[in-house]
Amino acid sequence: MADKPGFLNIVQSVLASAFGVQSQQKYQQDFSQSAIAPYIVVGIVFVVLLVLGLIGLVNWLTP
Fold first, then answer.
1. Cα–Cα dist 17/39, whole Å
2. What is the pLDDT along the chain (63 residues), one digit of tens a residue?
3. Among 54, 52, 46, residue whose Cα is nearest residue 13
4. Reported pTM
5. E strand or H helix that includes residue 10
6. How many CB atoms lie within 10 A of CB 63?
7. Under DSSP, is residue 19 helix (H, G, I), strand (E, B) or coil?
8. Distance CA 11, CA 28 (A)
9. How many CA atoms lie within 13 A of 37 on its CB side?
10. What is the DSSP string of 33-60?
């Protein structure tokens, strides 16, 4: 089993996956982890922040 990834590594993996630029090596490294919960939590937080950011941008741009 690989070393436990740090918080910043998890955030980087989620962002890279969300934008489709995750390398195959990093993808395999992420899926070799036994704990999936940190990736799910960071992914959910990312999606919520993205949606809220888009809502805020639209509200700011429209009268």
1. 11
2. 557 888 999 999 999 989 989 888 988 888 888 888 999 999 999 999 999 999 999 999 997
3. 46
4. 0.79
5. helix 7-18
6. 3
7. coil
8. 16
9. 1
10. -S--HHHHHHHHHHHHHHHHHHHHHHHH
